[in-house]
Amino acid sequence: MTTHTMLPIFFLLLTSLISQSIACNVVDKEALLQFKNQITSDPSKLLNTWTPSSDCCKGWNGITCDSTTGRVISLTLSGTVDDADLPLDTFLSGTLSPYLGNLTNLKILSLVNLKQLNGPIPKEFNKLSNLEKLYLNDNNFSGSLPFEIGSLISLSELVLSGNKFSGRIPSSIRNLKLLTSLDLHKNDFRSGVPEIIGDLKNLRNIDLSDNKIDGIIPESIGNLKQLVTLDMMKNKIKGYVPVSIGGLDSLTFCRISENLLTGILPSEIGNLKNLKSLNLGNNMLNGNLPASIGNLSSLVELYLANNQFSGKIPPTLENLKNLQRVDFSSNRLKGRIPKSMAKMSVSSFLGNRNLCGSPLLPCKRF
Ligand SMILES: *[C@@H]1O[C@H](CO)[C@@H](O)[C@H](O)[C@H]1NC(C)=O
Ligand SMILES: *[C@@H]1O[C@H](CO)[C@@H](O)[C@H](O)[C@H]1NC(C)=O
Ligand SMILES: *[C@@H]1O[C@H](CO)[C@@H](O)[C@H](O)[C@H]1NC(C)=O
């Protein structure tokens, strides 16, 4: 064939390909309409485009389909809030339909900041084995995480913060081998940090802050070589800072403040070469500060206020060239502070009256 005869055929093929883009899968469409059915209030009409007579892959707000299969791959709806974090008129009330479990090709399920979505995560979510991102943050969901959450084997990001989830973190999360981010902050989770957390070797971010988690931090946490941020602030965590913490090679942010930690700060903490921010304030830690803190060459912030640390500040802390903010207040530390800290402004260095060395607190009386 010559180019002249091929050209029209080419265009014919192209137009048929475009017009042919597969219609929405019927099971997926039914699942979405069932979801809409359980929404009791939608003042800003987020779901107005979702009508039985239209194709869910064409013009339905928040829906993305795979163009070759017509399967829904993303359901994304979010609310907006004002400066005081109160919902503007963009919110949804209602519960999650078990039919959502029929969206078996879904990769992203993001229903965030809609404030008044409530009830539990349906156990039918176990069918979402292709789901990579589950964001349900800033709603009013409750109940415990279903054991079936362990079936979401493709999940890399699980963000459930800002809800009223309760109960324990199910051990079935050990199956979520691809998980990089576990964000459960601001809920009512109880019981301990599960031992199996150490199995989730791809974790880069753990945020369990602002819950009611008690028990100890398991030694297994030291296996998480990719972990960059660890936030367990404001819980009821007891026991020691695990010696294994020194194994968290990638850690840059560590906040376990406002808990019930006891015992000493293990010298292994000094292995954390990438650590920029360490906050262990408001616990019951005691003993001397380990000299190895001076090895934390990336450290910018060191908050150890409201503990029972005693003795002198190790002179090795003079090595911390990047340190900008320090809080040692309400401890039993005494003696001379390193010269580098003496140069910090009054607001950047908080000590107590038994620490001296700055122009304001000369060491004469010691
Ligand atoms: C869709 O979900 C409902 C509720 O879980 C279930 O009863 C039904 O069998 C599912 N349909 C398909 C085709 O999977
Ligand atoms: C959230 O749910 C609780 C019941 O669990 C209810 O009392 C409360 O009014 C709800 N809050 C909002 C903002 O919908
Ligand atoms: C860490 O600090 C301690 C005490 O200051 C020191 O003996 C040790 O050699 C340091 N280790 C490394 C790897 O720098």
Summarize the structure.
By secondary structure, the chain is mainly β. It has 2 domains: 20-189, Leucine-rich repeat, LRR (right-handed beta-alpha superhelix), CATH 3.80.10; 228-366, Leucine-rich repeat, LRR (right-handed beta-alpha superhelix).
Report on the structure:
The chain has 2 domains: 20-189, Ribonuclease Inhibitor (Leucine-rich repeat, LRR (right-handed beta-alpha superhelix)), CATH 3.80.10; 228-366, Leucine-rich repeat, LRR (right-handed beta-alpha superhelix) (Alpha-Beta Horseshoe), CATH 3.80.10. The protein is built from 3 helices and 25 strands. The protein has helices at 3-19, 26-37, 339-342; strands at residues 39-41, 63-65, 72-78, 92-95, 108-112, 115-119, 133-135, 140-144, 157-159, 164-167, 181-183, 188-189, 205-207, 229-231, 253-255, 262-263, 277-279, 284-287, 301-303, 308-311, 325-327, 332-333, 335-336, 349-350, 355-356. The strands form 4 sheets. The protein has a 13-stranded mixed beta sheet, with no helix packed on it. Strands 1-4-6-8-10-12 form a 6-stranded mixed beta sheet. A hairpin with a 6-residue loop joins β2 (63-65) and β3 (72-78). Bound molecules: 2-acetamido-2-deoxy-beta-D-glucopyranose (3 copies). One 2-acetamido-2-deoxy-beta-D-glucopyranose binds next to loops.
The CATH superfamily of the largest domain appears as Ribonuclease Inhibitor
Ions, cofactors, ligands: which are bound? 2-acetamido-2-deoxy-beta-D-glucopyranose
Query: How many β-strands, per DSSP?
Result: 25
How many domains comprise the coordinates?
A: 2
Fraction of residues in H or I helices: under 10%
What is the CATH first-level class name of the largest domain? Alpha Beta
Q: Mean pLDDT, nearest integer?
A: 92
